[in-house]
Design goal:
Structural class: alpha/beta
Strand content: 15-25%
Strand order of the largest sheet: 1-2-3-4-7-8-9-10
Radius of gyration: 18 Å
Largest sheet: 8 strands, parallel, barrel
Number of strands: 10
Number of helices: 11
Shape: globular
Amino acid sequence: MTNADQVRGPRRPATIGAGYLHHCTPAHQKYFEHLMEIDAPVDMIEYLAAHFATDPDFIGEINAATAGLPSTLHSYEYMLGSVEEPPADTVQRLQRMAEVSNCRWIGEHVGMVGTRDTYSGTFMQPLGTDEQTQVFIDNLRAANEASPYPLIVENQPMLFNQIGPRTMCQQVADIAVGADAGILLSLSNLVISNDYHPVDWDSELSRIPLDHVWQVHLPLPNEKELAEPEYARFRENEKWVFSALESLFKDKDFRPAAVILEIEASGTPSRPSPKRTKERLEWIRDLMGSRAAEEEAVR
Protein backbone atom coordinates (compact mmCIF):
# COMPACT_ATOMS: atom_id res chain seq x y z
CA MET A 1 0.00 0.00 0.00
CA THR A 2 1.40 3.42 -0.98
CA ASN A 3 1.42 6.57 1.14
CA ALA A 4 -1.29 7.98 -1.12
CA ASP A 5 -3.49 4.90 -0.66
CA GLN A 6 -3.30 5.32 3.11
CA VAL A 7 -4.81 8.82 3.01
CA ARG A 8 -7.12 8.58 -0.01
CA GLY A 9 -10.71 9.73 0.46
CA PRO A 10 -12.40 12.01 2.98
CA ARG A 11 -10.95 10.22 6.03
CA ARG A 12 -8.28 12.38 7.60
CA PRO A 13 -4.80 10.89 7.57
CA ALA A 14 -3.01 9.98 10.76
CA THR A 15 -1.14 12.76 12.51
CA ILE A 16 2.17 13.65 10.89
CA GLY A 17 3.10 16.70 12.99
CA ALA A 18 4.61 20.14 12.51
CA GLY A 19 6.46 21.54 9.53
CA TYR A 20 7.14 24.60 7.41
CA LEU A 21 6.89 25.94 3.86
CA HIS A 22 10.23 25.28 2.17
CA HIS A 23 11.20 27.28 -0.91
CA CYS A 24 13.50 25.90 -3.59
CA THR A 25 16.41 28.29 -2.94
CA PRO A 26 19.92 27.87 -1.49
CA ALA A 27 18.98 30.17 1.40
CA HIS A 28 16.10 27.88 2.38
CA GLN A 29 18.33 24.81 2.17
CA LYS A 30 20.76 26.46 4.58
CA TYR A 31 17.81 27.36 6.79
CA PHE A 32 16.74 23.71 6.88
CA GLU A 33 20.28 22.68 7.79
CA HIS A 34 20.31 25.23 10.63
CA LEU A 35 17.03 23.79 11.91
CA MET A 36 18.55 20.32 11.91
CA GLU A 37 21.63 21.59 13.75
CA ILE A 38 19.49 22.86 16.62
CA ASP A 39 17.30 19.73 16.64
CA ALA A 40 14.14 21.50 15.49
CA PRO A 41 11.25 18.99 15.28
CA VAL A 42 10.43 19.22 11.55
CA ASP A 43 7.99 16.43 10.73
CA MET A 44 6.79 17.60 7.32
CA ILE A 45 7.80 19.91 4.48
CA GLU A 46 5.57 21.84 2.11
CA TYR A 47 6.83 22.63 -1.40
CA LEU A 48 5.55 25.18 -3.91
CA ALA A 49 4.71 23.42 -7.17
CA ALA A 50 5.47 26.55 -9.20
CA HIS A 51 9.15 26.27 -8.30
CA PHE A 52 9.41 23.05 -10.30
CA ALA A 53 7.42 23.99 -13.38
CA THR A 54 10.25 23.23 -15.80
CA ASP A 55 11.79 20.25 -14.00
CA PRO A 56 9.31 18.23 -11.93
CA ASP A 57 11.89 15.58 -11.05
CA PHE A 58 14.04 18.18 -9.30
CA ILE A 59 11.61 18.22 -6.39
CA GLY A 60 12.80 14.68 -5.66
CA GLU A 61 16.33 15.99 -5.19
CA ILE A 62 15.06 18.76 -2.93
CA ASN A 63 13.11 16.25 -0.87
CA ALA A 64 16.22 14.11 -0.50
CA ALA A 65 18.10 17.21 0.70
CA THR A 66 15.38 17.80 3.30
CA ALA A 67 15.86 14.36 4.84
CA GLY A 68 13.21 12.70 2.68
CA LEU A 69 10.51 14.01 5.00
CA PRO A 70 6.82 13.54 4.22
CA SER A 71 5.68 16.45 2.09
CA THR A 72 2.66 18.26 0.77
CA LEU A 73 2.48 20.06 -2.56
CA HIS A 74 1.13 23.62 -2.68
CA SER A 75 -0.55 24.23 -6.03
CA TYR A 76 -3.06 26.38 -7.89
CA GLU A 77 -2.84 24.67 -11.29
CA TYR A 78 -5.75 22.23 -11.18
CA MET A 79 -8.02 25.19 -12.00
CA LEU A 80 -10.79 23.88 -9.77
CA GLY A 81 -12.92 26.98 -10.29
CA SER A 82 -12.73 26.96 -14.07
CA VAL A 83 -15.11 25.35 -16.54
CA GLU A 84 -12.02 24.36 -18.54
CA GLU A 85 -10.00 21.33 -17.55
CA PRO A 86 -6.32 21.90 -16.79
CA PRO A 87 -3.96 20.89 -19.58
CA ALA A 88 -3.06 17.19 -19.44
CA ASP A 89 0.65 17.93 -19.29
CA THR A 90 0.08 20.18 -16.25
CA VAL A 91 -1.69 17.39 -14.39
CA GLN A 92 1.01 14.91 -15.38
CA ARG A 93 3.69 17.30 -14.11
CA LEU A 94 1.95 17.78 -10.76
CA GLN A 95 1.45 14.05 -10.38
CA ARG A 96 5.13 13.43 -11.14
CA MET A 97 6.14 15.98 -8.48
CA ALA A 98 3.99 14.21 -5.93
CA GLU A 99 5.36 10.83 -6.92
CA VAL A 100 9.03 11.73 -6.36
CA SER A 101 8.68 13.88 -3.22
CA ASN A 102 7.10 11.60 -0.59
CA CYS A 103 3.92 13.67 -1.04
CA ARG A 104 0.88 12.81 1.08
CA TRP A 105 -1.63 15.23 -0.46
CA ILE A 106 -1.91 18.27 -2.77
CA GLY A 107 -3.35 21.58 -1.54
CA GLU A 108 -5.33 23.67 -4.04
CA HIS A 109 -6.70 27.19 -3.52
CA VAL A 110 -10.39 28.01 -3.73
CA GLY A 111 -9.48 30.94 -5.92
CA MET A 112 -9.31 31.88 -9.58
CA VAL A 113 -6.10 32.49 -11.50
CA GLY A 114 -7.53 32.67 -15.01
CA THR A 115 -8.07 30.15 -17.78
CA ARG A 116 -5.68 27.69 -19.31
CA ASP A 117 -4.77 30.32 -21.93
CA THR A 118 -4.97 33.51 -19.89
CA TYR A 119 -3.27 33.92 -16.49
CA SER A 120 -4.44 36.85 -14.36
CA GLY A 121 -1.17 37.23 -12.44
CA THR A 122 -2.91 36.93 -9.08
CA PHE A 123 -5.72 35.12 -7.30
CA MET A 124 -9.11 36.46 -8.26
CA GLN A 125 -11.91 36.33 -5.74
CA PRO A 126 -14.34 33.46 -6.26
CA LEU A 127 -17.94 34.65 -6.45
CA GLY A 128 -19.52 32.25 -3.99
CA THR A 129 -22.56 31.55 -6.17
CA ASP A 130 -24.38 28.21 -6.32
CA GLU A 131 -23.24 27.65 -9.91
CA GLN A 132 -19.61 28.39 -9.24
CA THR A 133 -19.56 26.35 -6.04
CA GLN A 134 -20.92 23.36 -7.95
CA VAL A 135 -18.16 23.78 -10.56
CA PHE A 136 -15.58 23.60 -7.75
CA ILE A 137 -17.28 20.51 -6.30
CA ASP A 138 -17.48 18.70 -9.63
CA ASN A 139 -13.89 19.52 -10.59
CA LEU A 140 -12.53 18.54 -7.18
CA ARG A 141 -14.39 15.22 -7.25
CA ALA A 142 -13.12 14.50 -10.75
CA ALA A 143 -9.54 15.42 -9.84
CA ASN A 144 -9.60 13.21 -6.76
CA GLU A 145 -11.04 10.29 -8.69
CA ALA A 146 -8.13 10.52 -11.14
CA SER A 147 -5.33 11.31 -8.68
CA PRO A 148 -3.56 8.78 -6.44
CA TYR A 149 -2.72 11.76 -4.22
CA PRO A 150 -5.71 13.39 -2.49
CA LEU A 151 -6.47 17.03 -3.28
CA ILE A 152 -7.60 19.29 -0.44
CA VAL A 153 -8.87 22.86 -0.73
CA GLU A 154 -7.52 26.04 0.87
CA ASN A 155 -9.33 29.27 1.69
CA GLN A 156 -7.90 31.96 -0.57
CA PRO A 157 -6.16 35.15 0.62
CA MET A 158 -7.92 37.93 -1.24
CA LEU A 159 -11.49 39.04 -0.60
CA PHE A 160 -12.10 42.35 -2.36
CA ASN A 161 -15.82 42.57 -1.65
CA GLN A 162 -18.69 40.43 -0.48
CA ILE A 163 -20.20 39.60 -3.85
CA GLY A 164 -22.10 36.32 -3.81
CA PRO A 165 -24.24 34.67 -1.16
CA ARG A 166 -21.35 32.73 0.40
CA THR A 167 -18.52 34.17 2.41
CA MET A 168 -14.97 33.05 1.75
CA CYS A 169 -14.93 30.21 4.28
CA GLN A 170 -18.55 29.20 3.72
CA GLN A 171 -17.73 28.44 0.10
CA VAL A 172 -14.68 26.41 1.15
CA ALA A 173 -16.89 24.50 3.58
CA ASP A 174 -19.56 23.78 0.96
CA ILE A 175 -16.96 22.64 -1.56
CA ALA A 176 -15.20 20.31 0.88
CA VAL A 177 -18.44 18.78 2.13
CA GLY A 178 -19.92 18.55 -1.36
CA ALA A 179 -16.83 16.91 -2.81
CA ASP A 180 -16.14 14.81 0.30
CA ALA A 181 -12.64 16.31 0.50
CA GLY A 182 -10.24 17.71 3.05
CA ILE A 183 -9.53 21.33 3.89
CA LEU A 184 -6.30 23.26 4.19
CA LEU A 185 -7.30 25.87 6.77
CA SER A 186 -5.07 28.88 6.24
CA LEU A 187 -5.11 31.19 9.23
CA SER A 188 -2.46 33.12 7.29
CA ASN A 189 -4.90 33.82 4.47
CA LEU A 190 -7.62 34.87 6.89
CA VAL A 191 -5.49 37.63 8.37
CA ILE A 192 -3.98 38.62 5.01
CA SER A 193 -7.47 39.08 3.55
CA ASN A 194 -8.06 41.96 5.94
CA ASP A 195 -5.59 44.04 3.90
CA TYR A 196 -8.14 44.11 1.06
CA HIS A 197 -11.58 43.98 2.68
CA PRO A 198 -12.70 43.86 6.33
CA VAL A 199 -13.10 40.27 7.47
CA ASP A 200 -14.49 38.96 10.74
CA TRP A 201 -11.89 36.26 11.35
CA ASP A 202 -13.77 34.49 14.13
CA SER A 203 -16.99 34.45 12.15
CA GLU A 204 -15.23 33.05 9.09
CA LEU A 205 -13.44 30.43 11.17
CA SER A 206 -16.74 29.28 12.65
CA ARG A 207 -17.96 28.31 9.15
CA ILE A 208 -15.22 25.70 8.66
CA PRO A 209 -16.26 22.07 9.31
CA LEU A 210 -13.38 21.14 11.59
CA ASP A 211 -13.75 17.42 10.95
CA HIS A 212 -12.64 18.10 7.34
CA VAL A 213 -9.43 19.96 8.25
CA TRP A 214 -6.33 18.01 7.25
CA GLN A 215 -3.78 20.80 7.36
CA VAL A 216 -3.34 24.27 8.87
CA HIS A 217 -1.20 27.20 7.69
CA LEU A 218 0.23 29.61 10.24
CA PRO A 219 2.25 32.78 9.47
CA LEU A 220 5.54 33.14 11.34
CA PRO A 221 7.18 36.56 10.71
CA ASN A 222 10.70 37.60 11.62
CA GLU A 223 10.73 38.53 15.31
CA LYS A 224 13.02 41.58 15.03
CA GLU A 225 11.13 43.11 12.11
CA LEU A 226 7.85 42.32 13.83
CA ALA A 227 8.83 44.74 16.61
CA GLU A 228 9.12 47.66 14.17
CA PRO A 229 6.22 50.16 14.06
CA GLU A 230 5.41 49.56 10.40
CA TYR A 231 4.57 45.93 11.16
CA ALA A 232 2.29 46.63 14.12
CA ARG A 233 -0.74 45.05 12.44
CA PHE A 234 1.20 41.82 11.94
CA ARG A 235 1.82 41.67 15.67
CA GLU A 236 -1.93 41.80 16.23
CA ASN A 237 -2.45 39.24 13.47
CA GLU A 238 -0.01 36.88 15.13
CA LYS A 239 -1.68 37.17 18.53
CA TRP A 240 -5.01 36.19 17.02
CA VAL A 241 -3.52 33.33 14.99
CA PHE A 242 -1.78 31.73 17.97
CA SER A 243 -4.84 32.14 20.17
CA ALA A 244 -7.13 30.77 17.45
CA LEU A 245 -5.03 27.64 16.99
CA GLU A 246 -4.99 26.95 20.72
CA SER A 247 -8.78 27.33 20.81
CA LEU A 248 -9.24 25.05 17.80
CA PHE A 249 -7.31 22.26 19.48
CA LYS A 250 -9.87 22.31 22.29
CA ASP A 251 -12.56 21.18 19.84
CA LYS A 252 -12.95 17.40 19.64
CA ASP A 253 -13.49 17.54 15.85
CA PHE A 254 -10.22 19.37 15.17
CA ARG A 255 -7.50 16.82 14.46
CA PRO A 256 -5.30 18.10 11.61
CA ALA A 257 -2.62 15.78 10.31
CA ALA A 258 -0.15 18.66 9.94
CA VAL A 259 0.35 22.28 10.92
CA ILE A 260 2.67 24.16 8.56
CA LEU A 261 4.46 27.42 9.39
CA GLU A 262 4.69 29.96 6.56
CA ILE A 263 8.10 31.53 7.14
CA GLU A 264 8.47 33.50 3.91
CA ALA A 265 5.20 35.23 2.92
CA SER A 266 4.37 35.97 6.53
CA GLY A 267 4.13 39.76 6.68
CA THR A 268 7.77 40.71 7.17
CA PRO A 269 10.57 40.76 4.57
CA SER A 270 12.75 38.21 6.37
CA ARG A 271 12.35 34.70 7.72
CA PRO A 272 12.20 34.17 11.47
CA SER A 273 15.34 32.97 13.17
CA PRO A 274 15.76 29.17 13.23
CA LYS A 275 15.44 29.36 17.02
CA ARG A 276 12.00 31.00 16.78
CA THR A 277 10.85 28.46 14.22
CA LYS A 278 12.03 25.65 16.47
CA GLU A 279 10.09 27.11 19.41
CA ARG A 280 6.90 27.29 17.37
CA LEU A 281 7.34 23.79 15.97
CA GLU A 282 7.68 22.52 19.52
CA TRP A 283 4.58 24.48 20.54
CA ILE A 284 2.58 22.92 17.70
CA ARG A 285 3.81 19.46 18.67
CA ASP A 286 2.74 20.10 22.25
CA LEU A 287 -0.76 21.06 21.07
CA MET A 288 -0.97 17.94 18.94
CA GLY A 289 0.43 15.79 21.73
CA SER A 290 -2.10 17.11 24.24
CA ARG A 291 -4.95 16.18 21.91
CA ALA A 292 -3.48 12.71 21.33
CA ALA A 293 -3.08 12.18 25.09
CA GLU A 294 -6.71 13.20 25.69
CA GLU A 295 -7.94 10.75 23.04
CA GLU A 296 -5.82 7.95 24.46
CA ALA A 297 -7.20 8.62 27.95
CA VAL A 298 -10.76 8.33 26.59
CA ARG A 299 -9.94 5.03 24.94
